Amino acid sequence: MKNIVFAVIVFLLSPPTEADTLMYIRDDVLANYQKFLNGRDVHSITEFKSQFVRRDVVDMVLVQQALKMGGFEPNFQYAAGRVNFRNTRLLKQGKLLLSLDSYWLSDAITMQDHVYISQPVIRKGEYHAGIFASPKHPSIFNVTTLNDLKQFSGVSTPRWRTDWQTLQALPLKELIREDEWVSQANMVSSMLVDFIMMPFNSNGKDTYRLGKINLKHVPNMALLLNDSRHFVISKAHPLGEQAYRAINIGLTALRKGNRIQQAYRQAGFLIDKNKYTILNQ
User: Fold this and answer.
1) Interaxial angle between packed helices 240-256 and 55-69, expressed in degrees from 0 to 180 and rounded to the nearest 10
2) Residue 115 contacts residue 189 (beta carbons within 8 Å)
């Protein structure tokens, strides 16, 4: 009995370790991440051409690679769910080490009393989004100019400041607020709203499907979201400072080796701007 009590005391007084760090991630992102890895070690990944790769999957891979390159290698245990804004609360409380999905700088700055902000993983001017709508939409696929958007509605949330401000600056018929991304996509797929902004991907079909959600990209059109994206790390988490130092070391090394741009380009996220009309530029 004394041995058990002693062991518990030692555990409680021991410095924090990197083992078994619980991470929350949206269920659809986790599903694509696991299909993309297909049993491979995340640190072995150098090619990102896959039907399962998207911007947030690349984020998940790069953040883990950066941490290891910086000398920090946690054993992430994943908990899936609709966790977009719950993550922000958990980060502030120190119950979540970091976000596997990068944050807009404009959003991260509002949390800077509670989180460390990494170097940019996507730099300002690099992020372009497609205009996605139901394939059954009768007219939105004819859009070719900014003025054409006047007859259409869009959906987003002010909780994503850069997304919301980008849409507010467009001459839309209406901008609808919906805070949950899956609900946004459902509304557009059902044609209750005309379009949603979404990152480009590499599936070659300009489509997105999730369950009953079916969306298609308006061809050759893009919107600039003029902000950078960063990983945020909890200041209240016992491993936060260590992870923050490591991730910046790793991101510097990945950037120097051109691996960040290569990853997002192979994933179809970074577009050839000569092939698109960027409506708001």
Assistant:
1) 100
2) no
Q: What pLDDT digit, counting tens, does each position of 165-213 carry? A: 999 999 999 999 999 999 999 999 999 999 999 998 876 568 888 889 9
Q: How far apart are the first and last CA of the chain?
A: 70
pLDDT at residue 61, rounded to an integer: 97
**CB contact at 8 A, 18 and 239:** yes
How are beta strands 174-177 and 153-156 bridged, if at all? Answer: parallel
Closest CA to 97 of 31, 36, 45, 25: 25
- Judge contact between 242 and 74, C-beta under 8 A: no
Residue (of 237, 246, 180, 230) closest to 22 by Cα position: 237
pLDDT band at 3 (very low <50, low <70, confident <90, very high): very low
- Spacing of C-alpha 165 from chain mean position: 18
Q: In Å, what is the CA distance from 9 to each residue of 12, 17, 128, 131, 238?
A: 5, 16, 52, 56, 18
Place of tokens 């890895």: 37
C-alpha span between 51 and 202 (Å, rounded): 6
pLDDT tens-digit series, residues 78-94: 988 766 667 889 999 99
Element (H, E) at 233: strand 229-234
Q: In this structure, what DSSP letter does residue 41 have?
A: -
- How many Å apart are CA 27 and CA 246, to the nearest integer? 27
pTM: 0.84
- Residue 34, pLDDT > 70, answer yes
Mean model confidence pLDDT for the chain: 90
d(CA 17, CA 75): 10
